[in-house]
Structures are given as C-alpha cells and as structure tokens.
Amino acid sequence: MNPIVDPRDFPASSKCTYLNAANVSLMYQGAEKAVIEWQKDLAENGSINFDETAEAAVFGDLHRASARLFNARPEDIAVGSSATELISSLAWAVAPESGTNVVSTDIVFPSTIYPWLRVARHTNCEVRLAEGKNSYTDPDDVIRLIDDRTAVVCVSHVEYSGGQRYELKELAGVAHDHGALLVVDATQSAGAIPIDATASGVDALVTGGYKWLCGPFGAAVMYLAPHLQDQLDPGLVGFRSHKDMWDLRADRLEFPATAQRFECSTMAFGCAIGLARSIEFIVDVGVERIFSYNKYLANLLIEGLQERNVEIVSPHNEAERTSIVAARFPGKDPGEVARKLKAASVMVSARKDFVRFSPHLYNQSADIQRTLDRLDEL
C-alpha cells in the first residue's frame, strides 16, 4: 500500500522507526509551526497581537476542526488543557448521587476512571469495574453491570494496553435504556478510528491531542451532546466560564448555553492553535483512510511477529481490532525488549507484561520490516 502522507509533514519520522503513537505521536509539522509561532509572537509582542479580541476567539478554529472530526457542531465542542481536566470537570458536573453507580473496567487507563472515583468519595455512589483478563474485557461483562441505578458508563473507546475497541453505539443504547449517560475517553482512538459522535449516541467524548491526533501536549477537546449543554454546571470554573468572558464582574456567573461552558481559564493557547492545525490535517487526509492504512501496517507486523512465535495479545476479532499491537515475548522482559529496540532506533513501549507497537499514518511498510529485522538481530 502506498504511503498516505508526505514524509515532509512528519520530518521526525526520518530519525528512527517510530511505532509509538499510543504513547506520544510524532507531531504534524504544521501544528509544530503554529505552536512555535504563537509562542514567539507572545514572547516578543505580549498582547499587541494577542489582545482581548484574539483571546476570546482563540478556540474558534479548534471548535470547527473538532466538529468536523466528530460530525458535530462547533457549539458541541469544549477545549481544555488535558483530557483529565475535562473529564474531571464533567464528573463533578454530573456528580452521581448516593444509591447510583458508575460502570467502567478495571483495565481502563487510570485517568479515565479516577475522576469518578474521586467524586464517589464525596457523593458515596458506587463504582463498578468489569474484570479484564489478559488486557481484554468482554463487552458483555460491562453490560451486565449496567442497571436502572447506573448514572454513568465511562469507558475508553480503545483500551490503551491491548488496543481493544468497544462498539459505542451498542453501549450507548444499553446505557440509555437504563437512563444512564455514556462518557467516552477517545484519546486512543480520535484521529485513528472514525467517530461519529452524533450517530453513536455518546453523551460526552473527550480526547487529548498528543497521541493519534498528532498534536501537542497541553490541549484537549470534549464533545458534549446538545441535550446536556444547558443542564450541567461544570466542576471547574474560571473567568472564561461566563457567557461574556470580558464582563469581569464577581457577583454573577452565567454559563454559555453550549459545550463552551466547560472552558474555564487561560492556558497555553498556542497548543490549542496547533491542535486545530493537526486535526484539520487528519480530517483532510481522511480518518477512514488512516484507519485502513494503519490496520494494513498492523497486519504486516502481526504476521511477522507470529512467524517468530511471538504471542499476540491484542484482539483477533476484526470488530474489536485497532492498530495497537500488544505482543508477549516468551521468556523475555518487555521492558528490556523495548530498551534494546530503542537502542536499535525502533521506538515502542513496554506495558504490563508485553510490548506495545502502535504504527500510525507517517509509518510505511519498510518500518515494519525494519522492526522485524531488529528483533531478529536481538
């Protein structure tokens, strides 16, 4: 399969064989340029260019780009500094009460569930975690935990460890049948897997920008379904929370009637500008195209690893697969395998008792062969 991006858009890809997007992706050059230019202008000109008008409108491009990414409206998008910040603010806004429960899995990334555990200490709601085995959770085990007392089902769209993907529409249907909300952490899927927030029925979806979206640290976005936008009081508030942010009065707080009520304060605004550029790039390439291309690379890798008697931990079911490939090397310490590969200029991650490979759109089939060759040498 021919490459789908110009290597010049990701110049860092020439430095090594980088199969580590599930940890930190290589950044799109246009995003890097936008972040640096904004920071340089701020350092040299202060508020001459980045004045009150520019600050009020600074998230506009990111609202619009994220709306394209999720098949939503710009009004449905909120911007924050991190996915954790946005989930935390949402968790306090929902604040499931005593006698209700929150459903997730015990293999979910901690930042996805910790905010709900913190709220549960305050409200005394129950947190139910479906048990995962070998970095996999049977979706039916999640569904069995949902009942009429469930307030929130909160999952990662794709599990960070083994790359398992959940069917969001199915989970949303079950959650809604019981009067619960479906909250999704899409940090391991946004930019790599097509997401139609409206059609899937998710109530809220959050993603960081530095993984599959090829953006910087320091910026994240949240989709919030329209029916919740005038119902929730965010858990984190600041001067941007008021519907007219420059009407600086301390005696009132009136939220916008949009998802932007979750935008609370100042941040490294250049990161948001850079993330807008990277999402625009991703959407223009085509997420469906990226998904097919990445799975092609993952298939090449899986075939090569299996020929070398390496155990594949990631799901084999096509409906649950992603381009995250978790592999167990019998008798080998995964951390040592990852360190030796790094010394051989191949970047991967060690997670739990396996090695995690995660190719993305800037990789080519030659990267997969080079990785297999390095493994043979090691």
| Proper CATH architecture of the largest domain | 3-Layer(aba) Sandwich
Q: Quick check: average pLDDT?
A: 97
Our measurement of the CA-to-CA distance between the termini, rounded to an integer number of angstroms, reads 28 Å
CATH topology of the largest domain: Aspartate Aminotransferase, domain 2
| Helix/sheet category | alpha/beta
Low-pLDDT sequence parts:
none
Shape: globular
| Count of DSSP strands | 13
CATH class of the largest domain: Alpha Beta
Write a structural description.
The two termini are 28 Å apart. The protein contains twelve helices and 13 strands. The model has no long low-confidence stretch (mean pLDDT 97). It has 378 residues and is of the alpha/beta class. Helix 8 links the parallel strand 6 and strand 7 (204-208). The longest helix is centred in the last third of the chain and has 21 residues, at 287-307. Helix 1 (29-45) runs antiparallel to helix 9 (269-285), helix 4 runs parallel beside helix 5 and helix 10 runs parallel beside helix 12 (365-377). It folds into two domains: 7-19 and 286-377, Aspartate Aminotransferase, domain 1 (Alpha-Beta Complex); 31-284, Type I PLP-dependent aspartate aminotransferase-like (Major domain) (Aspartate Aminotransferase, domain 2), CATH 3.40.640.10.
